[in-house]
Amino acid sequence: MRPEDIIARAVGVLRENDMGGWTRASPTLYPHQWSWDSAFIAIGLAHIDTGRATGEILSLLRHQWRNGKIPHIVFNPDAPAESYFPGPEHWASAADSPDAPSGLSRTSGLCQPPVHAIAALRIFHVAVARGEGVAEAREFLCEVYPKLLAWHRYLATRRDPEESGLVTIFHPWESGTDNSPRWSAALERVEIGEIPEYERQDLEHVPDPSERPTGLEYDRFIWLVEVIKEARCDDAVLYDTSPFLVKDALASAILVRANEALLEIAKVAGAPEGDLAEIRTWIERGRQGLDGCWDHELGLCLDIDLRTGEPLRARTIAGFAELVAGPGKPDRLQAHIRTLDSHAFTGNPDLRWPLPPSTSPDQPGFQPRNYWRGPIWPVMTWLLWWSLKKAGERKRADRLKHYALAQLSDGCFGEYYEPFTGEALGSDDQSWTAAVALDWLAEEELPEKP
Ligand code: 2M8
Hints:
By secondary structure, the chain is mostly helical. It has helices spanning about 5-15, 35-45, 50-60, 115-130, 135-155, 185-190, 200-205, 215-230, 235-240, 250-270, 275-290, 320-325, 330-340, 380-390, 395-410, 430-440, and strands spanning about 35, 75, 165-170, 245-250, 295, 300, 305, 310, 415, 425.
């Protein structure tokens, strides 16, 4: 496919998934609005229409919780009950939480990695680069600034009472890398209690069940949802009761970059000096926390299981957390790049394209077709591409982009791809895949400050 054809197809996918002001994550498998999907989608939409891109973020923020949390799913009121599990009925009791938004808002009680401030700033930069809709984009930044500040403050306090700089999660779904082996050891310790009878809907939408999490994994996911509902989504209670309590290195790294974006947004919005100082503290704390996650032997950052106090040793794409967060210790960037280029990731000669698999083929538990256990996720390639550009590694970034576009030229816009054959897996026409394709192929030269 020629670049112009990829663009046309990507625009078509985002149009098809446009539900009138917000975008579903995919046509059938994911009929609702997902939090970090929406942020990536807004980055892509910016290249079509910055006004529509700002609308994507604003529509999500309308469902922000009173404590600042941005929910991981905003349910589509028009989606049939049997289209996704666990749907709004299953999460209904989350609405009883004193922190839940009032009114008719229907959301899950979880959250996802905080890409939103990065997206908001990128929309503004696209408007500036094009010289179109700049005043509106500036107004948008002023409008979202307090909401994003509240979101980041929620993560820096309720999700980090230890002030470690690292974000705590209560459910693998909060990491966005649901069944990744990074969570296996912590999940194996979770004893499943009484769960309601349930029927999975995801297997109706993918041709091959081996591309999705297993039944046992799902039982654990559903049990953890029960635990969270029992706590009425109270973070302090969950610190005591949740059997799954981990520090997520990748979400923490994204938060560092999101805080940098928030600092820029704060300046545009004319925020008080006290806010700027608070955000700077979060950035510094985040980088220090990530430094402590570094594992010299694996050449990657590791998540931490707060129930055992031990790092969770697994070679997954989340291990590039410090590359995402930006300048750490002097040699750290090069150490990350060595790991990225190594046999464990893009240097594996059997890969169809030298792109980073979600889980290293050298990791026990690697499965090339199974969701976050091996396949390549274009949206993750985008994150590493963007991080490499910010690190000044332009050639390496260009190389990733080149192969990422080769992977997408099948026109499927797959949710994820088999690393050795290049086959599109999961859902076709996945919105965030289309969005990152548009960002890769955009003509604007955007500022990538280190
Ligand atoms: C996947 O997660 C959902 C649960 O949130 C699922 O499997 O049903 C993940 O890939 C997640 O990162 C993503 O946001 C979501 C929608 O694309 O799907």
